[in-house]
Each structure stands twice: as structure tokens, then as C-alpha cells.
Amino acid sequence: MQGVSRVLIDGVPDTAVPVTDRAFQYGDGLFETIRLVAGQLSLWRLHRERLESGARTLGIPLDLQCVEQHCAVLTQGIAAGVVRITVSRGDSLRGYAPLADAHPRIVCALYPAAAPDPRPYVQGVRVRLCDTRLAEQPRLAGLKHLNRLEQVLARQEWSTSEFAEGLMLDVAGRLIEGTFTNVFLVLDDRICTPRLDRCGVAGVMRRYLLEQRPGMDGHTVSECDLWPRDIEAARECFVTNSLIGIWPVHTIVIDGAARQLTGVTMGRQISAEVERRLGFTNSN
Amino acid sequence: MQGVSRVLIDGVPDTAVPVTDRAFQYGDGLFETIRLVAGQLSLWRLHRERLESGARTLGIPLDLQCVEQHCAVLTQGIAAGVVRITVSRGDSLRGYAPLADAHPRIVCALYPAAAPDPRPYVQGVRVRLCDTRLAEQPRLAGLKHLNRLEQVLARQEWSTSEFAEGLMLDVAGRLIEGTFTNVFLVLDDRICTPRLDRCGVAGVMRRYLLEQRPGMDGHTVSECDLWPRDIEAARECFVTNSLIGIWPVHTIVIDGAARQLTGVTMGRQISAEVERRLGFTNSN
Question: What's the per-residue H, E or C state across chain A?
């Protein structure tokens, strides 16, 4: 299969799922995308906690120990790569009611590591503000579930490499996240990232930054309500996820007008400190 | 596979899709569930138009003639049943950006017809008002796409056969639809069904009723903004989809309190006329 090195389905080498699988039928499940660094799942405790919390919210009886065992087998002897864990509610008859005896299906897939490219880390990236808005659904907010059509629509707004990412607002106009990253703004001595209690994916790297504050000396970091006017006021901006780490943003294009950020100093400093602590090799 | 009689994937007998399929990975696709009556796909023109419109909105280059050919092969020699067509954007690498050369995957599955049961048609059904709300996402409103976690959550609010369906409000509190049906209220001489421009699935049977007005002599039928207070004021209520036709509702349970509707006369009259016109055999 294109791009995938190896797949285990419920612990067994395989590459296909039945069409009766509820992830295929309804997007009824969750996923995690994890960086494999020196043979270890980076930030696994945080990925595990999000998966556990998502399974509880969706009512999927997930055995996390199974997930860990399958990942250990999948990554045996591999130093670097990307692991995607997909958990579906399992098979089902027609209709939204889950089977009483349904077993979740656990798909662990190994992808090759991305080719190293220091440029986005050193120079920063250019992003755009997307037209596609995020709906407010507090019941699903924060989860990395499989209903991702909003991100798919937003990602179709550009097709060239001109933009590294697209930022998204919610229906009320609040800044929420990027299509595959979380977003942080540096406002004076405060670093702010949007609250995700109405929509958005609560990224593992975002949580790591909020809790560990790597390289943020002298700055506070917190969750806030943010609006496009805060982008205008921001000194810096950076986007984060558990695969890339931190990309400083040098330019944000809003309605065709390019807004240059003052610099990428703070983003680079945080990025470098995260790389040091987590053993990522990106910017050098 | 449980419950499925026969499956064609891109026209070929098969039962599984690769884990790289975007319907499995992101719910990136559409579906239709169609009643097979006397060997024909009932209301096919309307199903086809919704599928076409959904594919256009999602940017999936779908060949509708292929879909028709596969369905013809799937149902050859079969008089009655249920056909589920699932269209995914096809395979993909990691990430939301579709492959430039992606081919949609067309899965046509045949299920046995439901066992005939005249009771819901004659006596009406008992439904509940769900706590799970629908988010407002105008970009996806009306489509029968594969991001159905809201319906899955709502359907988990009850597990006994006490309720035949659950009605859902949007985040603003408007009545929108049932978990697998559309809903109509009879208010004096008006029949009303919720507008679906913010959220909800625009059902094929709903469109048929709006356009053809079967059995509605002396009543107007239209799309309106409806609220829970309109449920209180309604003389009758019925729910519809392309498989069941029309179920009159005799009782709606809201916050634990049962509200009896005045009758099921109009619902039964419309149901009987739809059965007559479409050749459904349910209530007799």
C-alpha cells in the first residue's frame, strides 16, 4: 500500500478492513499519529491519555494494553518513523446502534519518517487563513476522532506548496487551530493558544507546551479566546504537532493580504528546546 | 460478513478496503441507503442527485454511471432488499491533502430486506428527544456524508426497544431531524419539516414528500424553523426515510415526560399513499 511500511490489524499483519467496519461506515473511531524517535513512541503517555479519554467519550471499550503490545510488535527493530493508531468501534449491522457484542478494531500502521528539512524550523513557514469554518460541537471538542471532513475541505483550499498550513476559525469567528496543527500567538510577554472546549483537536504537542513550557523563559503560556484581530496584534505565531514539533510562522495570508510577523525568535527558541528534550532531529 | 448478502468494491466481489482508504481514515466520503422494490432502486433519481451534489461539494470526481452499473450487477435477480452505496475519496498518503491522482472507491453492499412489521405504520411509534445536539456546519448541511459521530452518540442515549427513534436539536435549540430519519410536524392545516441549511441530512423521502405531497390533501407542506415549543403545539408528528417510508409518532418523551400526540391520522394517510405509489409493502 502506498506510503505504508507495515500494518497490524488487531495485532496480525494485514492491510484491509471489512466494509462493515464502523470507521469506514460512519467515521466511528479515533486515531493518533505518533513520532517514533530512537525506537520509542515519543510523548506516548500523552497520546495514550487522549486515546483513553476519546474512547471513554465515544463509549468504545478499548484495551490500551493491547494497543501498546501491537505498537511494540509493529516498531520492533525500527528506529525512526511515524505510527498511526486507528481505533474503530468494530463491525456493525446497518444503522447507528452499535452491536452489543462489538469488539473495537485496532489498526497500527508504520510509515517512514519524513525526510529531514531544516528550512521550516529555521526560516519559518507561510500560512493562510482558511475560509472553511469549524462547527461548535462541545461533545466532540478536543478529541482526535475520525470525522475530519472539515479539515479535508479546508486543506482543499490550496494545492500548491505556497502555504505550509491553513489556520481555521470556528463559526463564531474565533481562531481555533490549523488543519493539522495547533496554533500559538506571542502577544507581548504572553504566549496564547485557543481554548478547545467548543471544537478543535487538543494536540499532544500543544499539551506538552502548556504543561512543560520548554524554552519559554519569562513568558506565560495559557489558553484564551483568540480572534483574527489577535493575529494582527501578535509579535510571533507558531504551529505545533507531535510529528513536526514547532514551526515558526513568518507570514499569514488573510483574504489575499500577507501579514508579516515581526520575527521567529521565540518560535525558534521553543522549537530548539523541544528538539533537545525529545530527541527530535529537524533543524540541524 | 454479518448481515451483508453481497458486496462489490469498484464492481468486483470483495469484502474489505485498504486501511489507507480515506473513508476509514477520515470519514472522507458519502453514502446512500436505498430500498430495493421489485428489483428496482426505489427513488433512484433522488438518491443519485444527492450523491452527485455531495460529491461536487466534497470535490470527489465520481462517475455516477459506474455506480449505476455496479448496482445493476449487485441486485441482478434480487427482488427486495436494501442497497448501501458508499463512496470514498479513495486511497491516500498520511495527511488531509488528497492525492492528485486519487480514484474514488465505490462500495455497493446488498442487505436483506427488513422483516415486515405493520405495527409502527398502524399504531405509530414512541420517540425521545435526544440530549446530543447537532453542530451547525453549513458547508456540509444536507449531505449524507460519512462523518456521523453525532448520530452515533445520540443513538447511544437509549439501548432498549422502548424508543423507535430519537429526535435531535441543533446547538441553538432548533428541531432538525431524527438520528436516522427526517421529521415532520402537523400544525393546524400546515405540515412543516425543519430547514436543513445549517445541519442535518436532507433525506430522499423528505424531498419526495415536499415535492409530491402524497396524501396531503388540504394541507400545505414546507420547510420552517421549528423549536421544541412547536412539538408541544403539534397535532401530529411523523418521521420518514427512504427505507421505512413514514412512521407516525404517537408519543414524544422530552426530559422524561411523555407527550401524547392527538392522533396518527395524517401520518397514516401519507404513509399509505407513499406505499401505494412506491410499491412498498409495510402496513398490510
Answer: CCCCCEEEECCEECCEEECCEHHHHHCCEEEEEEEEECCEECCHHHHHHHHHHHHHHHCCCCCHHHHHHHHHHHCCCCCCEEEEEEEECCECCCCCCCCCCCCCEEEEEEECCCCCCCHHHHHCEEEEECCCCECCCCCCCECCECCCHHHHHHHCCCCCCCCCEEEEEECCCCEEEECCCEEEEEECCEEEEECCCCCCECCHHHHHHHHHCCCCCCCEEEEECECHHHHHHCCEEEEEECCCEEEEEEEEEECCEEEECCCCHHHHHHHHHHHHHHCCCCCC
Q: How far are the Cα atoms of A120, A153, A158, A182, A264 from residue A214, in angstroms, in the given order?
A: 19, 33, 32, 16, 16
Instruction: Report the residue from B16, B91, B135 with minimal CB separation from A18.
Output: B16
Residue reference for cell 415535492? B211
B64: helix, coil or strand?
helix
The string of pLDDT tens digits covering residues B229-250 is 999 999 999 999 999 999 999 9
C-beta atoms of A149 and B27 within 8 A: yes
- CB-CB: which of A96, A107, A140 is closest to B180? A96
The whole model's pTM is what?
A: 0.96
Q: Is A184 exposed, middle or buried (0-12, 13-18, 19+ CB in 10 A)?
A: buried
Query: Which cell numbers in the block locate residue A196?
Result: 478547545
Question: What ipTM was predicted for this assembly?
Answer: 0.96
Q: CB–CB of A27 and B94 under 8 A?
A: no
CA dihedral A218, A221, A226, A230 (to 10 degrees): 20
- Given an 8 Å threshold on Cβ–Cβ distance, is A20 in contact with B3? yes
The whole-number pLDDT of residue A86 equals 98
Q: Which of A111, A140, A179 sits opposite B96 (nearest CB)?
A: A179
Q: Cα separation of B169 and B284, whole Å?
A: 33
**B147–A147: do the CB atoms touch at under 8 Å?**
yes
pLDDT digits (tens, 9 = 90+) for B198-215: 999 999 999 999 999 999
| SS3 at position B269 | helix
Amino acid at B115: A
By C-alpha distance, the chain A residue nearest B139 is A132
Contact criterion met (CB below 8 Å) for A189 and A266 = no
Strands B6-9 and B12-13 turn out to be antiparallel
For B137, residues 6+ apart whose C-beta sits below 8 A from its C-beta are A133, A135, A150, A171, B198, B199
Least confident of A119-128, B131-140, B275-284: B275-284
Express each pLDDT in B80-91 by its tens digit: 999 999 999 999
Residues of chain A with pLDDT under 70: 1-2, 284
The set of residues, in sequence order, having a beta carbon less than 8 Å from that of B45 and lying 6+ positions away, is none
Q: What is the dihedral sign for C-alpha A202, A208, A210, A211? A: positive
C-alpha span between B65 and A71 (Å, rounded): 42
Q: For residue A57, how far is the Cα from the chain centroid?
A: 19
Tell me if B7 sits within 8 A of B14, measured CB to CB. yes
